[in-house]
Design goal:
Elements lengths: L1 H8 L7 H18 L3 E8 L4 E4 L15 H6 L2 E2 L3 E3 L4 E3 L1 E7 L5 E9 L2 H12 L8 E3 L5 E3 L16 H7 L11
Antiparallel strand pairs: 1-2, 1-7, 3-6, 4-5, 6-7, 8-9
Helix pairs in contact: 1-2
């Protein structure tokens, strides 16, 4: 934790930044290799700039406009699913604010959850029926997480609407067959 806090407290132009960044990235890479539940770990400062990551390509990304950013500075949380990139891939992050000695938020450490097990469960369920089905999960934050679809002309991770999905977004719960 001290390595991560030290990095978050250091300005990028500071002489100690590169060494602290390398130490933090070594921890993040090791954590990513030990926890199959996560695809990646990264640290961003209070302005939203990624300053260290288990995937070096992510360093320098600006996250300030992402839907999870503001909430991630306020408290430790599992954020609502959001969709990223042209393929609209669902992303689920667990975030923990990094505090300095005075209790001020100076950054956030984040873990990107591995959603392959969810896709596997959904795909196996869909494969167990002879009828075309759409299996989805809906969060109260109006995020739609769906399995990759390859029927009815859909592919990737489209956002779907149906009576059931819209009821879930409205905060209702239950199950049933809904006609699209």
């Amino acid at each position: 934790l001290e390595v991560i806090r030290a990095l978050a407290e250091t300005a990028p132009g500071d002489a100690a930044f590169a060494d602290r960044q390398a130490a933090a990235e070594a921890l993040l890479v090791a954590a990513a290799g030990q926890h199959a539940t996560f695809d990646a770990f990264f640290i961003y400062n209070a302005a939203g700039q990624v300053i260290a990551a288990s995937d070096a390509d992510r360093v320098g990304d600006d996250l300030a406009e992402h839907p999870f950013f503001t909430g991630s500075l306020a408290e430790a949380r599992v954020n609502p699913v959001f969709h990223e990139g042209e393929d609209r891939v669902p992303v689920l992050l667990a975030t923990q604010p990094i505090l300095n000695a005075e209790g001020m938020v100076i950054g956030v450490v984040a873990g990107q959850m591995n959603l392959v097990p969810v896709d596997t469960i959904i795909s196996q369920t869909a494969a167990s029926t002879e009828l075309p089905v759409a299996i989805y999960m809906v969060s109260a934050a109006e995020s739609r997480l769906v399995a990759p679809l390859e029927y009815a002309g859909l592919s990737g991770y489209p956002e779907l609407h149906s009576e059931g999905i819209d009821a879930g977004v409205a905060g209702q719960s239950g199950s049933g067959t809904y006609l699209n």
